[in-house]
């Protein structure tokens, strides 16, 4: 679990008590741990370490240190966005969606975050022997419906089966290709001091919806996942101006992780206004109950945008006029102070630092 | 296991004995079974049924009934090949290669089978909690080395972690994009009576190499997997003529499955010459020992080509001059007789039918 790796966790479990103190090393950020922990898949600091220390050197490709969202590749004269994600959400079906919706919307949104118009998807299923074909069909139908809603074609696919006990029903990996319009250059490095920071709607709904039905965590709340395709919203924003600097969909690790990544990639600071961040009351209540911070809860149908201040008002208006952006809000600004750091101005007049989370608060959220 | 679905298996297990005879239906081809069996991932008749009966209707895309190898998509004026595969091979390392090599070469080869020059790959890892980071690193390094050897760039990626007991160490899903040269149109539907059928080298090596180290099946043979990228070989063949009709890499289900799929897609027949098919002695011996047919054993560095007869000799010569084609052989021809059917002329003067296998002879071979 991700919290095995939490730096402020006291060693109070039986397993911890059995550790030989003479050979004990700090378990966080797990650089000396020889095994994979849940946090390596959480989209936070441990995920970043895995990329920087394992994948980027192995692939001999330092640009992969930015192995997030989509890559922009030139091929045959076209500027393509290319992205992939595996989806291992548990349970497979949750209020407002399913693994199939996530697998489409997540990859469509990764493409959209580089300004691309998503065009083609692939789906690769890893099925566990013994899973009901009706479950596979229900997920496949969700994929088909979500692809149609997002305006993309599932062009190719694969299916593998693993023995019972070596999977978890259904894992789906999607990859996607989209076309980046001329003149569009959207990436975390382009954040500039002065940029307005806009979020497209209330945060935390996906994470709380999944948690609400997670085994052992049932706490009936009447909220549903925000899973949705965002390419149409992005197209509407680009009609206002092509000079949008950064787009990001705050999935694993939530808004907190996304803003930290942008601050680090661009060498700027982020300053949020606490009360401007739209947190639905049910999300706030659930987070209070579970001891979670809404800033770190996953979203699957929201984006955060860094927009030059002269365009901020018009972009915000265009977002609010789009079905996926009715709840859009200006939540802060990009600053030259404290580069690489995200701070929140609290309602009491103070500030607090929002650090990059080590892992996901609850794993397998997407 | 795939053999649960074998049509000629007598109901002789305890589980079978417990079936109520009044409600019993034939377990093959499993249309009435409500659950996923290993054979659904085997690349044979059960895989085809899953695509035709579940995925194609769910995606509302009848062209997906041809959900194999790579799709050719038009985007931004470019003709792109796009492909994906999940890799779940067990064990992760085997004589001659690893999961990492397969994950690159398999997708590179799927792109090459439409004549494309592979350019970009994505990798998505699903890691099991507790797997050693050294294992992940070893696989990542194999991915990096194989990508360099194949001349492709790993452009984007993802990592998820699932709880211990819900995975099998490492699963990797790759997707790839390549550019299809002008004037090239390679697909199973283009097979024509008279086409020469050429295989690029000895068959069965990958499957036997993996089986040789599979738990419980150790039988020390000195052979290694044929895993290799084939895009260079295809480029050399296309230099002879762009009018190559069909290319296929006979992976899951082996040469037998690939030829059946081509015969069915094109409405032609395939006639092989038994003794012309290059089966290494060690593969023949291992298959005899295990009761397998080499025609159904997986390959990961071989292709089969359907070539107009006037170009056959020159294409064969070009293949033999390429490092990946030194063992190329003319193994038969495409005929107008028995459309959709593959037959082998035996050394004794008779013929036998090579049917589409139901599933993989041994699962999790790639």
TrEMBL record, chains A, B:
GO biological process terms, semicolon-separated: protein maturation
Domain called PurM-like N-terminal: residue spans: 69-180
Pfam families in the record: AIRS, AIRS_C
InterPro entries assigned: HypE (IPR011854), PurM-like_C_dom (IPR010918), PurM-like_C_sf (IPR036676), PurM-like_N (IPR016188), PurM-like_N_sf (IPR036921)
Domain PurM-like C-terminal intervals: 192-338
PANTHER family: CARBAMOYL DEHYDRATASE HYPE, HYDROGENASE ISOENZYMES FORMATION PROTEIN HYPE
Family from the record: Belongs to the HypE family.
Protein name stated in the entry: Hydrogenase expression/formation protein HypE
Source organism (scientific name): Streptomyces misionensis
